[in-house]
Amino acid sequence: MLAVLTVSDLQCSQQLEEKSEDEEDKECLKQAITALLNLQSSMERICSKSLAKRRLSESACRFYTQQMKGKQLAIKKMNEIQKNIDGWEGKDIGQCCNEFIMEGTLTRVGAKHERHIFLFDGLMICCKSNHGQPRLPGASNAEYRLKEKFFMRKVQINDKDDTNEYRHAFEIILKDENSVIFAAKSAEEKNNWMAALISLQYRSTLERMLDVTMLQEEKEEQMRFPNPELYRFAEPDSEENIVFEENMQPKSGIPIIKAGTVVKLIERLTYHMYADPNFVRTFLTTYRSFCKPQELLSLLIERFEIPEPEPTEADRIAMENGDQPLSAELKRFRKEYIQPVQLRVLNVCRHWVEHHFYDFERDADLLQRLEEFIGTVRGKAMKKWVESITKIINRKKQAQAIGPSHNITFESPPPAIEWHISKPGHTETFDLLTLHPIEIARQLTLLESDFYRAVQPSELVGSVWTKEDKEINSPNLLKMIRHTTNLTLWFEKCIVETENLEERVIVVSRIIEILQVFQELNNFNGVLEIVSAMNSAAVYRLDHTFEQIPSRQKKILEEAYELSEDHYKKYLAKLRSINPPCVPFFGIYLTNILKTEEGNPEFLKRHGKELINFSKRRKVAEITGEIQQYQNQPYCLRVEFDIRVSDITSMCLHTEILVCDYVS
């Protein structure tokens, strides 16, 4: 087996050995280099013996030892060769090759046909000469006709010893283990072909290894940043400003933030080295618990306006001498720091207006400031981001002016409204027993679905629904809570106000029928409202009433009771097994958020400094994320405004007092 390496390949190995930090790798590379040097010496000895005999006119082989100058010249050369080959099929040479290596005439052993060979870094093309062949009128003027081609990535090169059948030969072994043997006219030509072929075979691996090493070295070379006193986002990481989770290793390899200052959180939100979509979502969901929207916008604008690093004293001296020491560093800084940071600031703004526009609805000045900021952004790379943000803002403004739309298109039409004793338009006769239980359940489900889908994550983070400004910060959540409370009281009221036992049994049966429809509609909030009503002190003690409930309905009620047992274990399993639309039970989310908020501190102390506990915010965001995943799918049901039970509050203004009377 003859192995030949060009000088450039040997240099690659030597550079890898110099830069390797692993002692075992260094030793292996040294041994490999020694072997390669011996092989190189042998080749030089063989070549030197035949060099004196060689005359240029005697050899048809022209070996290009240097790369073409410029990609355009290389492509031009490849195109010229391809045009000169008749019967070419497949991709152009320029699409799969970057460099022309050599050409020459070889004999294909076996058939004993001469072939003109063109060797590129990606292809070996074998042609038959058209010289001396009769030309038909209108036929191609190409000098060569394509016979076969080999992709260099899919072949192996094997040296062949001289035999009686052939001399100066080498073998091309194909991927399917078939092979082709070519013979050169002299040992010198064979050496040239072998040197070129084996160089191509090994070069990609060695250059790839060297590229990785050089890239790693470049990454380890510290980029120069602005002075932290002028740009506080350039402050180096330390335990006093940011802490990462130790036992959490995500698949992405991006470190997970445990705690940090607000400046460090903003820096990581728009980090120059990588994008972190999960962190962006979590941050924008929870930031209001430690930062106001106006402050966030100010920080993002400040982050966007990046000063360039100042020259050092050595730089100034060099500049006085006419040098430009900062030129390469500034180019790298603009490309690897300024541009990615600014693009990620705009990405955060886009995500903010897309998913949390309520911040801007509540504060017109905030929206005006954002529009003024994006109006100042310049640059081709930024243009599409600015246009995207502007389009979203205009769409949100238009939707805000029109109001919420209920025009939803479904694959199939919604079912018809079910009527019972009461008929359409006779609202004065509507009550629990005169309306159809299916339609009562449907209309309540539609109402509760609207309440559930309207709740925003910002209404939950920081338990703001329990605090002083709850009416401002959690309006939709409070509607949901009050509706649930009042509907539960209304069911209790309907039962306990029915004095006749037989009639009370009918009322309880009707409520269980509604519960059954709730279950079919996956309205778990409605199911647990009825369970709560049945478990209330005023209703639970009505033993004689429950004794007369049909056994089938008792079973339905018992199954509903089981949903709330053992920390809602069966409810959670069922919720995760069904497909939306559904109305989850909101109470369990509120309980989990309260436990998380109260069981984890707002700040973590490190070296006497208080850092925002972002781990706590991440846990809350996981809960709000689960809430959101059930908010997208509406019900395919028709709203009947005459039946729609939207006035439960007015019906239950005095219900709590009445129920308390029955308990006492």
UniProtKB/TrEMBL annotation:
<dbReference type="InterPro" id="IPR019804">
    <property type="entry name" value="Ras_G-nucl-exch_fac_CS"/>
</dbReference>
<dbReference type="InterPro" id="IPR001895">
    <property type="entry name" value="RASGEF_cat_dom"/>
</dbReference>
<feature type="domain" description="PH">
    <location>
        <begin position="99"/>
        <end position="202"/>
    </location>
</feature>
<dbReference type="GO" id="GO:0007265">
    <property type="term" value="P:Ras protein signal transduction"/>
</dbReference>
<dbReference type="InterPro" id="IPR011993">
    <property type="entry name" value="PH-like_dom_sf"/>
</dbReference>
<dbReference type="InterPro" id="IPR000651">
    <property type="entry name" value="Ras-like_Gua-exchang_fac_N"/>
</dbReference>
<dbReference type="InterPro" id="IPR001849">
    <property type="entry name" value="PH_domain"/>
</dbReference>
<dbReference type="Pfam" id="PF00617">
    <property type="entry name" value="RasGEF"/>
</dbReference>
<dbReference type="GO" id="GO:0005886">
    <property type="term" value="C:plasma membrane"/>
</dbReference>
<dbReference type="Pfam" id="PF22697">
    <property type="entry name" value="SOS1_NGEF_PH"/>
</dbReference>
<dbReference type="InterPro" id="IPR035899">
    <property type="entry name" value="DBL_dom_sf"/>
</dbReference>
<dbReference type="GO" id="GO:0005085">
    <property type="term" value="F:guanyl-nucleotide exchange factor activity"/>
</dbReference>
<dbReference type="Pfam" id="PF00618">
    <property type="entry name" value="RasGEF_N"/>
</dbReference>
<dbReference type="InterPro" id="IPR008937">
    <property type="entry name" value="Ras-like_GEF"/>
</dbReference>
<dbReference type="InterPro" id="IPR055251">
    <property type="entry name" value="SOS1_NGEF_PH"/>
</dbReference>
<dbReference type="InterPro" id="IPR023578">
    <property type="entry name" value="Ras_GEF_dom_sf"/>
</dbReference>
<protein>
    <recommendedName>
        <fullName>Ras-GEF domain-containing protein</fullName>
    </recommendedName>
</protein>
<feature type="domain" description="Ras-GEF">
    <location>
        <begin position="436"/>
        <end position="663"/>
    </location>
</feature>
<keyword id="KW-0344">Guanine-nucleotide releasing factor</keyword>
<feature type="domain" description="N-terminal Ras-GEF">
    <location>
        <begin position="253"/>
        <end position="397"/>
    </location>
</feature>
<dbReference type="InterPro" id="IPR036964">
    <property type="entry name" value="RASGEF_cat_dom_sf"/>
</dbReference>
